[in-house]
Specification:
Strand content: 15-25%
CATH architecture of the largest domain: 3-Layer(aba) Sandwich
Structural class: alpha/beta
Number of helices: 13
Distance between the termini: 28 Å
Largest sheet: 9 strands, mixed
CATH topology of the largest domain: Rossmann fold
CATH class of the largest domain: Alpha Beta
Shape: elongated
Order of helices and strands: EHEHEHEEEHEHHEHEEHEHEHEHEHH
Number of strands: 14
Bound molecules: iron/sulfur cluster
Radius of gyration: 29 Å
Strand order of the largest sheet: 3-9-10-2-11-1-12-13-14
């Protein structure tokens, strides 16, 4: 049995007060491990202000790279890439002797290096279009590839820039890391490397250690990064003998939410009294049910629509989900956020409600007394 409890605060969508509640709980419990699992848009650190002590990069997959010094420009990788991630390197590269089925070729830029002979007549068995049909190079590329070297180049006086002058290159933004180009390359010119997908951070806050991460723009695999920050939070809890991890969950119901929910002791869903809020609650509750995670509900800004609040509570009762409290709308909460302060530090009706909710969460998780 794990020596700590894990509480995740989630919502069907962003902007429902999830981070406000998480930071308030961190303040009220006094000392816990804080884990921001909203890796697409982490913001808990703004309120908790950790002093960063460690950080590292995260790789969510592979990306292929062609070694220009090895590439002989056969075009096989180009033909086999299903993601259109490979293209001619630039217009200064020339492939002479290119045939329609890629069976025979020699590469003109080898001549430019001055110490190699053209590889005229080199044969690649797996380029036979009858046994291995592939997309031919588009006609607009062929004239460039077949353009003869200039007289200056033929005289060996020109050298191609180190990052140019090769036939093919890979666009890392389009590459899916499938590895096919590495398999088909006849001269082992393709390497699969770790793709930089984000950064994780850990440090100490006034309320205990914290870990969070930021996914790099355009990167995927946020579920994997959520798993990584949760693992780091668990290590911190074990090393510091802290009995509670509070997770600020990602919005939605996708892969990162599944990673944030799996195996926790309680999922607290923050919802708002709107039709879309009700819909989001139903979806996230179905997910928690599927993952067999105990679920409780908090209605934020309940007084903005008491009618839908009643509907939410009736729905929760019908499904045996406990409603641990209602939080009234309070401009003071927004002002606290703008001041980068924790809402529950101020005295107002919303912070009183949050304190009551925390006391019920504590009871649900069977945590001992302590904190504020
Ligand atoms: S790894 Fe796959 S997607 Fe990436 S360039 Fe190679 S074949 Fe294309
Ligand atoms: S990387 Fe390999 S498969 Fe692609 S063009 Fe160069 S030699 Fe051919």
């Amino acid at each position: 049995m794990k020596p700590f409890r894990e509480l995740v605060v989630i919502s069907g969508k962003g902007g429902t007060g999830k981070t406000t509640l998480t930071a308030s709980f961190s303040y009220l419990v006094g000392r816990s491990v804080q884990c921001d699992a909203d890796v697409d848009a982490p913001d808990l650190w703004i309120l908790l202000q950790p002093k960063i002590e460690a950080e590292g990069s995260f790789s969510g997959g592979k990306v292929a790279r062609i070694s220009p010094e090895k590439c002989i420009g056969c075009g096989l990788c180009y033909q086999h890439c299903r993601y259109e991630a490979i293209g001619p390197a630039n217009s200064t590269t020339r492939m002479a002797g290119l045939t329609s089925d890629f069976s025979y070729y020699w590469v003109a830029d080898r001549q430019l290096e001055g110490h190699r002979q053209p590889q005229e007549g080199r044969f690649l068995s797996n380029t036979n279009p009858e046994t291995n049909p592939k997309t031919p190079l588009p006609p607009e590329i062929l004239p460039t590839l077949q353009e003869p070297a200039s007289s200056q180049e033929q005289a060996g006086q020109a050298s191609l820039p180190p990052d140019q002058g090769r036939i093919f290159r890979i666009d890392p933004n389009s590459c899916e890391g499938c590895g096919v180009c590495q398999i088909v390359c006849p001269v082992a010119a393709v390497q699969l490397e770790e793709r930089y997908s984000g950064q994780w951070f850990s440090g100490e806050t006034a309320y205990g250690p914290m870990v969070y991460a930021r996914l790099a723009p355009g990167q995927e695999n946020s579920g994997k990064l959520v798993t990584l920050v949760r693992q780091k939070a668990q290590i911190l809890a074990r090393n510091h003998q802290i009995p509670l991890i509070i997770i600020d969950g990602p919005p939605g119901t996708g892969c990162p939410v599944i990673s944030a929910l799996t195996g926790v002791d309680l999922a607290l869903v923050v919802t708002e009294p709107t039709l879309s809020g009700k819909h989001d609650l139903e979806r996230v509750a179905a997910l928690a049910e599927h993952l067999r995670v105990p679920l409780a509900i908090v209605v934020n800004k309940y007084d903005l629509n008491p009618e839908i609040t009643s509907e939410l509570e009736s729905w929760a009762a019908a499904h045996s989900y406990p409603v641990l409290g209602r939080i009234p709308f309070s401009p003071a909460v927004t002002q606290s956020l703008l001041a980068k302060d924790i809402a529950v530090r101020q005295e107002n009706p919303a912070s009183s409600a949050i304190r009551e909710i925390w006391s019920r969460v504590r009871g649900t998780l069977h945590l001992g007394e302590g904190g504020k």
